[in-house]
Automatic annotation (TrEMBL):
Residues 135-197 form the Phosphatidic acid phosphatase type 2/haloperoxidase domain. This is PAP2 superfamily protein. The keyword Acyltransferase does not apply. The chain crosses the membrane at residues 45-68, 88-105, 111-132, 139-160, 180-199. Keywords: Membrane, Transmembrane, Transmembrane helix. The keyword Nuclease does not apply. The lineage of its organism: Bacteria, Bacillati, Actinomycetota, Actinomycetes, Micromonosporales.
């Protein structure tokens, strides 16, 4: 029996970037980073960060993984854009619940704004993906760097090469075209920056 051919190094790197910088990873990390930035005590970090993590990452990602296990979704990146509406809509509903709880818990404006950014960018991606396969990887990566730059200043601008790397990985793996990647970045980054600035 012939052994399977190894993937070229470029394809392995693309797969690594796609997994490490996936939307689920970034929407898990961003609220925690923001909560750590604005929390006044470990208790606040646990309360605000835990709430954001549960409703912005754990529930939405769990819905996708459940769909994959049940065979309703092709993969955890939901490569078939026709399958994206339901998990994205459930994810948005979860984020909306998280926003209400954070408001009740009097979370700082910066953290609240980050969660609104996640909701708005997610809603925009859901709308576009109803008709066209926009790159959610690129949209979320661009939004993440835009928000980090506003939270931490110019040093966070060093994240833009990673956004480009994510875009390259999606094209290299043939999950998206360059127009889909560029459109995702062009949607996510300015939308995230505008929403964040409007709320802080």
């Amino acid at each position: 029996m012939r052994a399977p051919r190894e993937r070229p190094a470029g394809a392995r790197l693309a797969r690594l970037l796609t997994e490490v910088l996936a939307p689920g990873v970034l929407v898990t990390a961003l609220p925690l980073v923001a909560a750590a930035r604005v929390s006044r005590s470990p208790a606040h970090l646990l309360l605000w960060g835990g709430t954001a993590l549960l409703f912005c990452a754990v529930v939405p990602v769990g819905v996708i993984l459940h769909g994959v296990r049940r065979g309703r979704l092709t993969d955890r990146h939901v490569g078939d854009h026709r399958q994206r509406a339901r998990p994205l809509s459930i994810g948005l509903a979860s984020v909306a619940v998280g926003l209400l709880l954070l408001a009740a818990l009097r979370a700082p404006a910066e953290l609240f704004a980050v969660i609104v950014v996640i909701f708005v960018v997610g809603a925009a991606c859901t709308l576009v993906n109803h008709w066209w396969k926009l790159s959610i990887h690129a949209a979320v990566a661009g939004a993440t760097v835009a928000v980090l730059a506003l939270l931490f200043g110019p040093v966070a601008q060093l994240g833009w090469p990673l956004v480009a790397a994510v875009g390259w990985s999606r094209v290299r793996l043939r999950d998206h075209t360059w127009p889909q990647v560029l459109a995702g970045t062009a949607l996510g980054a300015p939308l995230a920056a505008g929403v964040f600035l409007a709320l802080t």
